[in-house]
Design brief:
The protein is mainly α. It has 13 helices and no strands. α1 (2-35) runs antiparallel to α10 (252-281), α1 (2-35) packs across α12 and α9 (219-241) packs across α10 (252-281). The protein is globular.
């Protein structure tokens, strides 16, 4: 019995690590096809469309007996969930990367757990008691995560491994990045604003998903509807920014494979699993795993794409993992404390029940003796 309980506790951890692993592969494939010239919003539209086609029949058949009535209010929640979790969020992040740099944008992605935690406090989705060890652990974990995110993004350090065959390519890329950053200096502020908006949208999705999970607890159906709305929103954004129809053609097996994988796994199953984790452990727990995507992507970049591994990446990754562990440890302590209080309350009610029965019996006996008299 205890082993089964322990297994249930570890399921959300394993699920989120699997999600981050899948997202890391999506990021690597996305990097490759975007370098080949594929339009960002076209990719997002295809990705969400395939997610809808994949999840709709699964949600219909698996959840048809347990699915509650789809009201206008729930549809509005799902429409806004698509805005803050799919279409506009990805648009703002891609815009921010275009106007600033990939390294700079990573800082905002790594800040998602902290912002989610801070946004959840006024809505009552998270509690913070500094007097308890769990509350202090959550604060400490948040601060350490921020420090790790800053270190991971701003400090590069010395390279740990030298790929001599890719040095010339790396130098050319560094030179190109410097030229591009010089040309886009005046747009850096706009890119920073876009990244701030995208980060707040992504954090809002975790909070909104906790509400959707209570009102419409069907992960497959809700994700399919959200992907459908997101595909429409992304298509409108794409046509409003680029009306060239040739951008919608998929060239080669890599683009087709990337779109299919990102749609079925990235925007399909990963969002289903994240929604389930939000329902089980809350928005802050789910958001706390966001920095792992960058760490896992770096693990693929080194052997496959021959990217250099720097000391700053190692140190920042270690600090982020430590901070995330402290935050999750605080959350776990808080959950155990809450369960202990509920068990004590249930035990107290059970102890009071015999006394109440004795009082009722004595009252009944007095009532009957009065009638006999």
């Amino acid at each position: 019995m205890a082993d089964m309980k322990s297994c249930e506790e570890w399921k959300p951890f394993i699920a989120m690590i699997a999600v981050d692993f899948a997202f890391a592969i999506v990021n690597i494939l996305l990097k490759k096809i975007l370098d080949e010239g594929m339009d960002h919003l076209v990719f997002v539209t295809y990705r969400l469309t395939i997610s809808t086609i994949f999840l709709a029949p699964i949600g219909y058949f698996l959840e048809r007996n347990s699915r509650p009535k789809l009201t206008l209010r729930i549809l509005c929640y799902l429409f806004f969930s698509a805005i803050v979790g799919a279409s506009l969020t990805q648009y703002f992040f891609l815009l921010g990367i275009q106007y600033t740099s990939a390294y700079f944008s990573c800082a905002f992605v790594n800040m998602v757990p902290v912002i989610t935690f801070l946004m959840a406090l006024p809505f009552g989705l998270e509690t913070l008691d500094i007097k308890c060890n769990s509350g202090r652990a959550k604060v400490l974990g948040t601060v350490v995560c921020i420090g790790g995110a800053i270190l991971l993004t701003l400090y590069r350090g010395v390279p740990l491994f030298d790929h001599s065959h890719s040095q010339a390519v790396t130098q050319m890329m560094d030179h190109t990045i410097k030229l591009n950053s010089t040309k886009k200096t005046e747009r850096w502020t706009l890119g920073s604003i876009a990244l701030v908006v995208g980060t707040f949208f992504w954090s809002s999705w975790f909070l909104l998903q906790s509400t959707i999970g209570k009102r419409y607890p069907c992960q497959y159906s809700s994700t399919a509807i959200m992907s459908f709305f997101g595909a429409i929103q992304s298509a409108i954004l794409s046509f409003s920014t680029n009306r060239n129809l040739s951008a919608w053609s998929l060239n080669g097996k890599i683009e087709i494979m990337t779109v299919l994988y990102a749609g079925i796994i990235g925007s399909g199953m990963c969002y289903v699993v994240m929604s389930w984790c939000v329902k089980k452990r809350g928005p802050v727990f789910t958001a706390a795993f966001s920095p792992l995507v960058q760490i896992m992507a770096a693990m693929f970049d080194i052997p496959i794409l021959h990217e250099k591994l720097y000391l700053g990446s190692i140190l920042g990754s270690i600090v982020v993992i430590i901070g995330m562990y402290i935050l999750l440890w605080g959350k776990n302590m808080e959950m155990k404390l809450c369960l202990t209080k509920l068990a004590q309350e249930a035990e107290r009610i059970k102890e009071q029940e015999p006394q109440l029965q004795v009082v009722e019996i004595s009252c009944d006996s007095r009532h009957h003796s009065g009638q006999d008299a």
